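Review this chain:
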Amino acid sequence: MNKLFSALFTIMIFGLLALSIWYVGIRLQTLFELHRRWPIQIAVAAAVIGAMAAIIAAVRSSSPLAGALNVIGGYVFTFYIFLLFALICLHAIQIIWPLPIAWSRMVALALALVVTVAGALWANSFAVNESEIRLPGLNKEVSVMHISDVHLGYHHGRDYLEEIVKETNRRNPDLVIITGDLVDSNAALMPGVLDPLSDFTAPVYFVGGNHEKYVDTERVLELISQQGVHVLHNEVVETNGLQLVGLDYMNADDSSFEMHPSDDPRTIKSVLAGLSLKTDLPSVLMHHSPVGAQYVTEKGIDLMLSGHTHAGQVFPFTLFNEVAFPFNRGLYQQDITQVFVSQGAGSYMLRVRLGTSNEINLLRLVASS
């Protein structure tokens, strides 16, 4: 069923993309008063398909050229998306209020360009956001820096990771939790890129995400472990009066639809059923994607930490995410379990943020009254 839904979803996305290319071609022909439609439609299709190819092809590469094309492709695709929206809005206005053609084309291009540049600039930095979370049975306050979705590679590299480590150490947390998608391409596996991980002053615990699988899970985890990071594989460890449950990236169960399904035959449901937890210690579960919360609750776990969603990263995908992910960003309550979802410290596919922000999260865990 998962495969069927994924196939239908993919067909729908590509169908909408083809429709949008056709529409943009027609509108640009009209606004630029061109006599022939096919040259402009071919140009639009080439730009969009070329941008998508550049974004996708860079995952398995460490070439600087591939990296440059990846970033440029992301900007081109972002520009296209907002040009499409600008053209739709102007088209709707023109139905009831005729606008000068020269003015319309200038406004459409300018809006798309300004939004793309603003989003590109916004994606170059991150914020440190603080939250207080109350846990039953906690003997003392525990400060946790939750980091997710850094996506080291072509969008951000060693310098960005160094800044994350620096800002984390300034706040002196008791432990650091990284919930996957630390790397985004083979460029992140180049010598020295992951070295700043060894500079964290607090113990660091890591679970993998879907992008570690896309790159090379075994190699990625080996390099991360070499930096003194504790990589957890479906296991429980105790630290600072907490039970940390670290799960590999997997589906919630065998029947639920997943936006990014895992090929792991195990599921959150099956793995949690086989783990033993103490009832007198509060528990925190680490899993890259905020799925399977119902099984986390059934296990009696107090807090689930995830990322993966990017909160949609770029408007209007932010609206889609609110529907696709019941737990999208921030803190939620699922029966006895609290679920915290980070927007992520980096960007994926598009080196752009609009309507969301790169963040790392300082979580102050305190005893509930």
